[in-house]
Design brief:
Helix 2 packs parallel to helix 3 (about 70-80). The chain is about 55% helix and about 15% strand. Strand 1 (about 10-15), helix 1 (about 20-30) and strand 2 form a beta-alpha-beta unit. It has six helices and five strands. Strands 2-1-3-4-5 form a five-stranded parallel sheet, sandwiched between helices. The radius of gyration is 25 Å and the shape is elongated. It is of the alpha/beta class. The chain has helices spanning about 20-30, 45-50, 70-80, 100-105, 120-165, 170-195; strands spanning about 10-15, 35-40, 55-60, 85-90, 110-115. InterPro entries: Bact_response_regulator, CheY-like_superfamily, Sig_transdc_resp-reg_receiver.
Length: about 200
């Protein structure tokens, strides 16, 4: 099984922190993942970036001037376009003990305190990247299935029309039986998709 990632499956990682040193440290830790890393120095910048392009995961500092991490996360989760993007909160060790609870309550997928273990952070981000890729693959499979379903439905409609036109054909009874069975299969497929 190949572990190579196609360019279609690549997704950016959004790094949100108001401190340059923290952004540089995150880039150093995550650079080996070979995924695009996008910086945002504030919650406002993060929201603009999220509306411009898709992201697999957001690494979000809790303490920032202006829109803090909690408010930024709440805004991310409020928008249909961004609500499913996982958020990993990052905060200093001197953080209020209620921060973790607030982070999870806001919709965070995970919460790490600084200084974080680079291996742990990289492993957590890798899990979200893998989930993102699998989701993209499922979306492509679903689109392909929907296209095939529509094509089959159109073929059945045309076949039914031809059978109706050729009412005197000697093989009509057999063909109508096969058409009826195909329609049953199509009906079952429709039922299965609606559940």
């Amino acid at each position: 099984m190949s572990t190579e990632v196609s360019t279609d499956d690549r997704a950016s990682i959004l790094l949100v922190d108001d401190m340059e040193d923290n952004l540089t440290a995150l880039e150093a830790v995550l650079g080996s993942l070979n995924e695009p890393l996008v910086r945002a120095r504030s919650g406002e910048e993060a929201m603009k970036a999220l509306l411009r392009q898709p992201f697999a995961v957001v690494l979000l500092d809790v303490r920032m001037p202006g829109m803090d991490g909690f408010e930024t996360a709440a805004n991310i989760k409020r928008l249909d376009q961004t609500k499913d993007i996982p958020i990993i909160f990052l905060t200093g060790t001197d953080a209020d003990t209620g921060y973790a609870f607030r982070g999870y309550a806001t919709g965070a997928a995970d919460y790490l305190t600084k200084p974080f273990d680079p291996w742990v952070l990289r492993a957590k981000v890798t899990v979200f990247l893998d989930l993102h890729r699998k989701n993209l693959q499922l979306q492509r499979m679903l689109a392909r299935e929907q296209s095939q379903f529509a094509e089959l439905s159109e073929l059945l409609t045309r076949l039914e029309a031809r059978l109706t036109d050729d009412a005197g054909s000697p093989h009509l009874v057999e063909a109508r039986g096969e058409l009826a069975r195909m329609e049953e299969v199509l009906t079952e497929m429709r039922r299965g998709r609606s559940h």
